[in-house]
Design brief:
The chain is α+β, with helices and mostly antiparallel strands and about 190 residues long. It folds into two domains: about 35 residues; about 140 residues, L,D-transpeptidase catalytic domain-like, CATH 2.40.440. The protein has a seven-stranded mixed beta sheet with strand order 3-2-1-7-4-5-6. The chain is elongated, with a radius of gyration of 29 Å.
Length: about 190
């Protein structure tokens, strides 16, 4: 009978020892991992790919497209088409020297819904570039373009966006957003 009474206490002692041992091991493992030098696998993967995200600005009045790496202008190209919208759009495809973007964007859709109208933009949904094989340029330089921003004109030297008289009442809101977007990019005369 005494052996049967001691059995649960023996098992309980072993369970306690195992529990404290596992806690001690966890603490040691935590400190070993915390102090050990390690490399972030995501950073390594990005270093291997070395793909750069680039900002694309288009100024409709001057028909210029500017590429920006880290907010500094790198390249300037002439665009062929001028029937383009204003605002920020996601790039959906790059093909045949054209950058295709989503038209309408979320802002256009919201304004159409607020105005209780069907969105009917008469603008092109692509930017056609001159004098460069743009697809090849992007592949060679490992460039990723996600968004493109269209401005009526460049106000970084001074002045304002050109007024749009037949435009909807919410155009001043869009111009304010575009001014904020443009202010973060440095204007460089020498390029």
């Amino acid at each position: 009978m005494t052996i049967l009474l001691k059995l649960p206490s023996i098992i309980w002692n072993k369970i306690q020892r195992l529990f404290f041992f596992s806690i001690s091991l966890s603490i040691l493992f935590f400190h070993a991992c915390k102090n050990a030098p390690h490399e972030d696998p995501v950073v390594i993967e990005k270093d291997i790919i070395k793909e750069q995200t680039v900002n694309v600005l288009v100024f409709l009045k001057s028909s210029l497209l500017e590429l920006y790496f880290n907010k500094n202008k790198s390249e300037v190209y002439t665009i062929q088409n001028s029937n383009l919208p204003l605002g920020k759009y996601d790039i959906v495809n790059i093909k045949n020297n054209r950058l295709y973007f989503n038209l309408p964007n979320r802002y256009d859709q919201r304004k159409a819904l607020a105005d209780k109208r069907i969105f009917q933009e008469q603008a092109d949904n692509f930017v056609a570039l001159e004098d460069i094989d743009f697809e090849k340029y992007l592949k060679i330089n490992k460039i990723n373009i996600e968004q493109i921003v269209f401005f009526p004109n460049d106000t970084r030297k001074g002045g304002n966006f050109e007024p749009c008289y037949p435009c909807p009442h919410w155009m001043s809101e869009l111009y304010a957003q575009l001014e904020l977007e443009l202010a973060s990019f440095i204007h460089q005369e020498n390029q």
